[in-house]
Write a structure and sequence with these properties.
Structural class: mainly alpha
Order of helices and strands: HHHHH
Oligomer: single chain
Radius of gyration: 18 Å
């Protein structure tokens, strides 16, 4: 008879988040593949995938966690979730960065590494207050959980709108 030890990484979250990003990428691919890939057709794909990833962090993660019972170690679970979400997101983001910059188009520097790292840092920063909303939701009953979910949506709403509109434009 084997006894299972609790793990720090949530396997359902790990699998679900990976599938979420994979499906987001597939849904944002253009139906017609150009004869020669350049960075221009891939940028809308990247933007769409970033929006999908932010929706996953802002809505799917809190909804999943707040629909479950409070774990024995909630702080450890939230930090584990934050680590898992950010590690997989960073990996996917770096693959997108490589795809855009290695397509052989006329603009090889279309997406600088500094911008990629800023996006990763911004998403990592957004997961912290959303994790706090989940922790608040786990403290109480149904009303607290609803308030925590609304808080997570409000925290992410502005960023999602900016990304959906094409991001901030510099003069």
């Amino acid at each position: 008879m084997s006894t299972s030890r609790p793990t720090l990484l949530s396997r359902p979250l790990l699998l679900g988040w990976t599938l979420w990003l994979l499906v987001s990428w597939l849904m944002n691919l253009p139906l017609e593949t150009p004869a020669r890939m350049t960075s221009y057709p891939t940028l809308p794909v990247v933007r769409g995938m970033l929006i999908s990833a932010l929706v996953g962090i802002a809505l799917a993660w809190p909804t999943m966690r707040l629909s479950q019972a409070r774990p024995a170690a909630p702080r450890l679970r939230i930090w584990s979730d934050i680590f898992t979400l950010n590690l997989i997101f960073f990996t996917a983001l770096m693959m997108l960065h490589a795809q855009v910059n290695m397509t052989g188009g006329s603009d090889p520097g279309a997406w600088p590494l500094q911008q990629t790292l800023r996006i990763a840092a911004l998403v990592a920063a957004w997961t912290m207050p959303i994790g706090l909303c989940i922790a608040i939701g786990w403290r109480g009953s149904g009303g607290w959980r609803a308030a925590a979910l609304v808080g997570a949506v409000l925290l992410s709403g502005g960023g999602l709108i900016v990304v959906a509109l094409g991001g901030p434009h510099q003069a």
